[in-house]
Amino acid sequence: MAEDKPGVLNRVSSLLRRRNFNIESIAVGQTEQPNLSRMTIIVEGDDAKVEQVRKQLDKVVDVVKIVDITNDDKVARELALIKVKATASTRSAIIQIVDVFRANIVDVSPDSLMVEVTGDEEKISSLLELLRGFGIRDIARTGRIALTRGGAGPLQVEETKALKQPPKALPPEAESPPDW
Amino acid sequence: MKKTGAQILCESLIKEGVEVIFGFPGGVVLPLYDTLPQYPKIRHILVRHEQGAAHAADGYARATGKAGVCLATSGPGATNLVTGIANAYLDSSPMVAITGQVARPFIGKDAFQEIDITGITLPITKHNYLVLDAKELAKVVKESFYIAQNGRPGPVLIDIPRDVFQQEADFVYPDKVHLPGFKPTLFGHSAQIKKAAETINAAERPVIIAGRGVIVSKAFAELKELAEKAQIPVITTLLGVGCFPETHVLSFGWLGMHGMAYANQAVYNSDVLVAIGMRFDDRATGVVSSFAPQARVVHIDIDPAEIGKNVRVDVPIVGDVKNVLEALNQQITPREHLDWFNQVDKWRDEHPALLIRESESLLPQYVVRQIYEVTQGDAIIVTGVGQNQMWAAQFFFYDKPNSLISSGGLGTMGFELPGAIGAKVGRPDETVWCIAGDGGFQMTMQELATMVQENLAVKIAIINNGFLGMVRQWQQLFYGRRYVHTPLSGPDFIKIAEAYGIPALRVTDKKLVVSAIEKAMAHDGPFLIDFVVEPEENVFPIVPPGAALVEAMEMPAPERVTRPSK
């Protein structure tokens, strides 16, 4: 969760690049809170590496909260738009496949169809595999987005915790004169 | 009442307690410079190159603990700050850098002296701002100082377009910041502190490694209490030098590539390592796999990202060092580690590190030693990077808290002189010695003019060996003695100093070292000494690249220098 300000995506992606973490996918969108946006980032690496990514991202001032949901029970989705070559003879076959995948035809033209599909990575890849035989003209695919199942969002959890713990101390006075 | 952006900036700086700005004017910051005379509380020190402004702000920050402020115009002014900002970033020095930007309608048009400085400094600042409305300015300044000085300190940059300096807005300085994404953890987790105390109480061969975090947190007394209570040898990092009195019986020097061999031995053989306010830099650890193979590691640091980054940690504690040590000390049982202590002491006898070999010629180590003797350790030493830095750190004994200011993480040649200027401005009552190499000195020596204009009584010792010495040493040891582009013909430093109106002496004879240093100390104002030293003297010990700490090369045929004790 990050503050919805210009340049935040750049701060995050630049940090990942600088620390030599490879971004597999990144998706950004608004949240239920007007000043916050949610970034869903997929990076590959062992636990230590992912832990380091999390801690480094946490240091970005505009990043409010970061949660590693790799091992959580979650719903993860991608969206793909696929433009497939379609003739009078292949059109119905394509539509049948699209139906099986619970995908939608969102545009029809004399020589092509546009398919919209959401799902996990595997589902989209399988559909692509099946459509490849008809001739794929163009693909646009989003990064993955995900939410954990049940319970509260990451920020609500934090707020409850914050309430339970009385404030222990004030930050050190910036103005205090140095004693050396 | 409405004020201009420039006025709002000045008012805000005063609210933050800023007394001095190191800066250099230029086109887009003219509205700000035009406003400065209205605020005589803010002292502006004119540098000769913006890099000097950033280093001076950094030196000021390290000497005082308060954020240093530097100011430059857009384009080249801003890019010239970059090295200084990076230097502050890597050594966790609080800094607020202010740059001018082209007027808002010109942004993105490659206008004259336009550069994307927020983009450039993204990876070397804790945070940065491009202020597009004067209404935002007060809040941005407040946040910048808060971010720079809290948590792990570091630089923050504020980029302000020319027309924002001129734009009018209401001035209301916020009382507090609202930064949901910046909440440093100040107090260690009590369960972790308990675990750390148990680990330390059970230790047989404990070692403390104390870093700059102790200095930043001003935890000098707390560190001493821990060491004395649990009788643990204290080893520092290079940047931690000055966090624990070096003539204390528990002080065992500093570790790392040029650290004392006995310190490296102690770390290697320890069973519990208490790392305090340090980040296991590669220059400190050598090859990580053979760093401290048997040790359980307790790591205390305010930056959670440093924990477990380079070295496996058994007991992590995130928090401000002073707070954590206060809590930890209460749970430490007093005890002694006589066998371990004797063992480390034996290593110190077998691997003496602070050696000045016998020689008729003028040795750099001897020069540093005499500066220590004459000042009696009551001075702030400022260095850049290289052989001169290592000798300055090795042969001066730092008892005074926070008395060594040196470019560590970035290893910046040219930090020494402007860094010393900043330190002297921040602590005018202290004796400040700039120990420079002839290479590093030539990188920023134009700042001599700044010293003269502001009458800053910095004493400069040039360790002049006619080489880029550390690189030459590597060429000698690891590149078949092929001295490619390291021999350095310098100017006549005496004439240089005199041209700036600074009295100077050249010393080539060992016998004249002390009197020259005394003369520099007695002079009321800046003074330069050009010590023409043995050209091919090496820094020992040295851990060869890719080797373990315990594989240090030591100086052949040594003469033992005994450490003074109280």
Please give a structural write-up.
The complex is a heterodimer of chains A (180) and B (566). With 180 residues, chain A is of the alpha+beta class. Helices cover 31% and strands 30% of the residues of chain A. Chain A has two domains: 2-71, ACT domain (Alpha-Beta Plaits); 74-141, Alpha-Beta Plaits (2-Layer Sandwich). In chain A, strands 4, 5, 6, 7 and 8 form a five-stranded antiparallel β-sheet that branches. In chain B, helix 1 runs parallel beside helix 6, helix 15 packs across helix 16 and helix 15 (364-375) crosses helix 22 (513-522). Chain B is an alpha/beta fold and 566 residues long. Chain B is globular and about 70 Å long. In chain B, the strands form four sheets. In chain B, strands 3-2-4-5-7-6 form a six-stranded parallel β-sheet, sandwiched between helices. Chain B has a six-stranded parallel β-sheet with strand order 11-10-9-12-13-14, with helices on both faces. In chain B, strands 16-15-17-18-20-19 form a six-stranded parallel β-sheet, with helices on both faces. Chain B has three domains: 2-170, Thiamin diphosphate (ThDP)-binding fold, Pyr/PP domains (Rossmann fold, 3-Layer(aba) Sandwich); 190-350, Rossmann fold (3-Layer(aba) Sandwich); 364-539, Thiamin diphosphate (ThDP)-binding fold, Pyr/PP domains (Rossmann fold, 3-Layer(aba) Sandwich). The A-B interface holds A 2-3, 7, 10-11, 14-15, 18, 48, 51-52, 55-56, 58-65, 168-169, 171-172, 174-175, 178-180 and B 16-17, 64-67, 118-119, 122-123, 126-127, 145-147, 149-150, 179-182, 184, 186-187, 218, 220, 303-305, 307-309, 320, 323, 401-402.
Spell out the key features of this protein:
heterodimer, A: 180 residues, alpha+beta, Alpha-Beta Plaits, 2 domains, three-stranded antiparallel β-sheet, 5 helices, 30% strand, disordered C terminus, B: 566 residues, alpha/beta, Rossmann fold, six-stranded parallel β-sheet, 22 helices, 20 strands, 37% helix, 16% strand
